[in-house]
Amino acid sequence: MKKKKGYLSGAGALAAAVVFAKVLGAAYRIPLANLLGAEGMGLYQFVYPVFALLLTLSGGSVPTAVSISVSELVARGEEEEARKFFSAALKLSLLIGLTGSLLLAALAYPVSYLQSRDAFLGYLAISPAVLIVTLVSAFRGWFTGHNNLMPSSLSQITEGLVKMGVGLTLSYILLPYGLSYAVLGALTGVTASELVTLAIMSIIFGVKHGKVPRVRLREERPHLKKLGKTMLPLILCGMILPLSQFIDSLLIVNLLGKTSDATAEYGVWTGMVAPLINLPVMICISLGVAVTPQMVESREKGDVDMILKKCDTSVKLTFFLGIPFVILYLIAPESVLGLFFSGVGQERLMRGALLLRINAVSVLGLSVFQIYSAMLQGLNRIKAPAVIMSAAMLIKLLLTLILTPLFGIVGAAIAAVCGNVLAGAVIFGYFVNFTRLEKRLAKNVSLITLCGVIMGLPIFMANGWMTSVATVVAVGILAGLVYLAAVFVTQVFSREEWQAMPLSGLLVKLDKKINGG
Predict the structure, then answer these.
(1) Residue 426 CA to its chain's centroid (Å)
(2) Is-contact 307 391, C-beta < 8 A?
(3) What distances in angstroms separate CA 516 from CA 491, 495, 513, one per listed residue?
(4) Which of 10, 11, 40, 187 is a plausible cystine mate for 126, CB 3.0–4.6 Å?
(5) What pTM did the predictor assign?
(6) Is the Cβ–Cβ distance between 382 and 376 less than 8 Å?
(7) For the segment 20-45, what is each residue's pLDDT rounded down to a tens digit?
(8) How many CB atoms lie within 10 A of CB 45?
(9) Phi, psi for residue 461 in degrees, rounded to 5
(10) Burial category of 381 from C-beta neighbours within 10 Å (exposed 0-12, middle 13-18, buried 19 and up)
């Protein structure tokens, strides 16, 4: 019971940190969008998908690969071997990250020529972050493999604070010199935030575990071989979404026409709508980060019952977290966007609301894909998520080519939601077939969806009155309380599951008061 509590409590702490970091990110994007405008945000979003793609290639698989291998060794009681493995992983991360940074700097001119030449300086500013993030990823994998998510949680918060402070300050100072320089300042904030994160992770590791052991190359070869074998399918899976976003950054603007208006449309889509879609998805990724080493540990011990319990709880939590956002984005996208991006103008706001409503279901598609992918990785089924996401994004690409010339940025949004939902649906079917949990899953999903519909009633009734920050927040709190009450009444989670979550004492008391016992 303690281990389960640790897993969910750790996931809750990381999720809370992610939410706080995303709130900081939203608070950062509001003045940034008002400072740069839609065109400036478009330039910012030109650079980010390319950065994300290089980041995935260099270090995106590192935390999961390290956490899987470390948790396997720790579960077998081989702590010293785990330390040697981490030493090898850190050296490999340094080499790969440095290569990634140099490659991004080299690609800055040709890629910005295809997108917009004003993006060139932004690429140079963010290129060192590839190396830094790759090293940070190795440390995160080490701590996650030990079921310690607090360093990752702390670093999420400090990362957001530094990015906001440095990015906004530099953007404001450099704006008089031109929009490209202001974007340069914002992206320099990203590099600075990752550098601070690396310093924090190194200090925590030193305090808790001492120095990284020095290991001879001959001793490291088995560890490097094992790491490479684990990383390859994870890289393939992790690079698909960033690659798709990179292709979008080249394709969509050219399909719309390389004008400032096209860049602004792309900025609305990627700079305003996408972050709101990604917020609940990032929370579910936090849950996935926590559940992967737990799956590895249970698999190593041959504890099938524990695997099934963790699968059941993780999936319920994914739908529990995702469905409220889907309902909110479907019913009141104008109010949500108006709360965060009031300075972009009414026309852009209404266009963003349409795009958010169209892509609301992407929240579930991507969340479901992420949690099932994490569980499959922990169960040593690493290749399946890569194959599924590849097929889904290929279909999305074909739909983008067909629909964008016909419907503009709305066509691109339709293509995106089709690809995201397809990925979630297929991996859902694959996992159900693999674990034979279909009956429980169907019941849980139905109950949570019903609770979400009930939650949507006060939002629907108050939608016309949600014209200020105070009313939006008040209606959001009311809807959240209604949703939580419905979840308790329908007994979506067992008392044992409530006991394993953060704030378990309060949740169990509420459950007893509502359901008795």
Answers:
(1) 20
(2) no
(3) 11, 11, 6
(4) 187
(5) 0.71
(6) yes
(7) 766 676 667 778 877 777 677 777 87
(8) 24
(9) -70, -30
(10) middle
